[in-house]
Amino acid sequence: MTSTTTFPADSPVTQDGDVLVLRISDPDKGSALDGSALTLATAALREIARGEREIGAILILGAGRNFCAGGNVRDFASAQHRPTFIRALADSFHDFVTALLDADRPVVAGVRGWAAGAGLSVVLHADIAVGGPSTKLRPAYTGIGLSPDGGMTWTLPRAVGAARARDIILTDRVVNADEALAWGILSRLVDDDAEVEATATQIARTLAAGPRAGLSATRSLLSRSATATLRDQLAAEAHAISTNSGTREGIEGVDAFVGKRAPDFATARDQ
Questions:
Q1: Which Gene3D superfamilies match (predicted)?
Q2: Can you tell me the distance from the alpha carbon of 8 to that of 238, in angstroms, rounded to the nearest whole number?
Q3: Which terminus of the chain has fewer Cβ atoms in its 10 Å neighbourhood, N or C?
Q4: Fold entry, domain 212-270
Q5: Chain-centroid distance, C-alpha 33
Q6: Catalytic option among 94, 104, 172, 193
């Protein structure tokens, strides 16, 4: 596959083998959400959805000590017409979120330090989020008199339950790493902040080497399960597993198990 976006030198968006790496914050602006990084990331994600960029997983990281501190509030304050300015920012951010959804690849986040506002919204879109001792999460919207964006009011209740989500968002509660793990916002914790990105990177590489059709089907099933009936979910699972058993990756996985060897999904895909 050929890509249509060329990443500039020192780009916040890069491709590491079969992993698309997105660094979404600007450390020179207090780890605020980086608009240019979002634009570049959205373009690359759209290429994945169109089949123009071959990627197996998406890795989202911060660019400094913190994952992302949210939107640049100083820019909000200096805007000539704040509602127009913030609506444009929200639309751009939501383009990124929908592109992340449409790319249909496993999403891993390495959440070091603060993930606040839009940063927390991004964490909630990850399939697997890794945190460490310094990880802290905060909605941060009501603290500046605003309401959430980036899908937080949709994702957070599904992660932690409606009552807890209301408490967290309405009171602008700071959630520490242990709470985030216990409540299902983070998937796992590591003992040292230096290990957060390394662990997240290793997970993304492992997923990228896995069976893409099987992972895509699994993610879809998990997403549907919250609103599906058990009968509908059983029917969807039966369809997915039978369909995947006839794909090259599905055949390779079963044959490798029987042959007592590690599956080579990449070679199977290329045949």
A1: 2-enoyl-CoA Hydratase, Chain A, domain 1, Lyase 2-enoyl-coa Hydratase, Chain A, domain 2
A2: 45
A3: C
A4: Lyase 2-enoyl-coa Hydratase; Chain  A, domain 2 (1.10.12)
A5: 15
A6: 94
The whole-angstrom separation of Cα 76 and Cα 18 is: 37
The answer to whether the CB of 251 falls within 8 A of the CB of 268 is: yes
**247-260 pLDDT per residue, tens:** 999 999 999 999 99
Tell me the three state secondary structure of residue 155: helix
Q: Provide the β-strand partners of residue 111.
A: 131
Q: Tokens standing for 224?
A: 């549907």
Q: Which is more confidently placed, 10 or 243?
A: 243
- 161 phi and psi, to 5 degrees? 95, 155
pTM of the model: 0.93
Q: How far apart are CA 175 and CA 195, in angstroms?
A: 20
63-101: pLDDT as tens digits: 889 999 999 999 999 999 999 999 999 999 999 999 999
> What type of residue is 196?
V
The pLDDT score that the predictor gives to residue 270 is: 78
Whose CA is closest to 99, among 154, 33, 14, 38?
38
Q: Find where tokens 């009968």 sit.
A: 231
Catalytic residue among 26, 34, 127, 149: 149
125 counts as catalytic: no
